[in-house]
Design brief:
The protein has 259 residues and is of the alpha/beta class. The protein has 2 domains: 6-199, Alpha-Beta Complex (2-enoyl-CoA Hydratase, Chain A, domain 1), CATH 3.90.226.10; 202-250, Orthogonal Bundle (Lyase 2-enoyl-coa Hydratase, Chain  A, domain 2), CATH 1.10.12.10. The protein has helices spanning 31-46, 68-71, 76-81, 86-93, 110-117, 144-152, 154-163, 169-175, 187-199, 203-215, 221-234, 239-249; strands spanning 6-12, 15-20, 52-56, 61-63, 99-103, 106-108, 120-124, 128-130, 167-168, 180-182. A 6-stranded mixed sheet has the order 1-2-3-5-7-10, with helices on both faces. It has a 4-stranded mixed sheet with strand order 4-6-8-9. Helix 1 runs parallel beside helix 4 (86-93) and helix 6 packs across helix 7. The chain is globular and about 60 Å long. It starts with 5 loop residues before the first strand and ends in a 10-residue tail after the last helix. The structure holds octanoyl-coenzyme A (CO8). This is enoyl-CoA hydratase. Keywords: Fatty acid metabolism, Lipid metabolism, Lyase. Could possibly oxidize fatty acids using specific components. It is an enzyme of class 4 (lyase).
Length: 259
């Protein structure tokens, strides 16, 4: 499939790399880009050879937010009728395969929210995160007011959405927004290596791990822990569990088949 606002590649077995590609607008998220991203996720989800995705932008910007020029003249009726960006946000949120956000440069507004919709964020030292929508007289609209406090706590989230200040990569790592910070020239390499490692695991175990970590934000501790134990037990129905444990005992690398 070919896209105008994305570049999709397969850098190694099991890994799909999706690059946001609107350099003229610092990868601002418009309807076309988010429509194409939804299609690319559909394709990756349907492709059994894809086990993990990496979503990235350019050196200058992961994404500088939703496209202000596209939005500026819209009416409430238009925003509501189109459920503006609702479908795309749900598509990313509901992807069953892991997505790593590889962020360099600006991740602002919808760009920061897009990164937070992914499963974890690997940041270049140049990364800058922010929710500056208040400067435009609006607010985050793709989960920023909800996911940012869950990631960094109320104090920093409130500071960021009310003052529009940006957080650099070091602060984002200290605050728990990103999992790793690496030099800019190593960032993509690091993200692709993490994706390759995930792609080498049992896809069944990967999917269940992802589902349960996400469930931690939606359930009580006791419900989550019970769900985890049930799924742990259920993994014993798969050949991959037998293979993983046999390989450990036999001191060899496991070969997971996804069954
Ligand atoms: N939308 C449209 N175009 C953009 C955007 C954007 N968000 N960001 C940058 N651009 C464009 C600029 O207009 C400029 O284009 P042109 O050359 O044609 O004038 C080009 O990208 C380069 O940008 P700058 O010249 O401004 O580059 P600088 O290096 O000087 O500044 C900044 C970089 C600081 C990133 C600056 O561009 C900026 O502040 N951008 C806007 C950041 C922002 O406010 N983001 C939030 C947008 S609102 C949002 O994300 C809401 C999400 C929820 C939507 C859906 C809800 C349901």
């Amino acid at each position: 499939m070919s896209y105008e606002t994305l570049i999709v590649e397969t850098p190694s077995a099991g890994v799909a790399l999706i690059r946001l590609n609107r350099p003229e607008a610092l990868n601002a998220l418009n309807s076309q880009l988010l429509g194409e991203l939804s299609k690319a996720l559909d394709a990756a989800e349907a492709d059994e050879t894809v086990r993990c995705l990496v979503l990235t932008g350019s050196d200058r910007a992961f994404a500088a937010g939703a496209d202000i020029k596209e939005m500026s003249d819209k009416s409430y009726a238009q925003m509501f009728s189109a459920d503006f960006f609702g479908a795309a946000a749900r598509r990313i949120e509901q992807c069953r395969k892991p997505i790593i956000a590889a962020v360099a440069g600006y991740a602002l507004g919808g760009g920061c929210e897009l990164a937070m919709l992914c499963d974890f964020i690997i940041a270049a030292e140049t990364a800058k995160f922010g929710q500056p929508e208040i400067n435009l007289g609006v607010m985050p609209g793709i989960g920023g007011t909800q996911r940012l406090p869950r990631a960094v706590g109320k104090a920093k989230a409130m500071d960021m959405v009310l003052t529009a200040r940006m957080m650099d990569a070091a602060e984002a790592e200290r605050a728990g927004l990103v999992s790793r910070v690496v030099p800019a020239d190593k960032m993509l390499e690091e993200a692709l290596a993490a994706a390759a490692k995930i792609a080498s695991q049992s896809p069944l175990a990967v999917a269940m791990n992802k589902e349960l970590v996400n469930a931690a934000f939606e359930t009580t501790l006791s419900t989550g822990v019970t769900m985890e134990r049930r799924l742990f037990h259920s993994l014993f129905a798969f050949e991959d569990q037998k293979e993983g444990m046999a390989a450990f005992v036999e001191k060899r690398k496991p070969e997971f088949k996804g069954r």
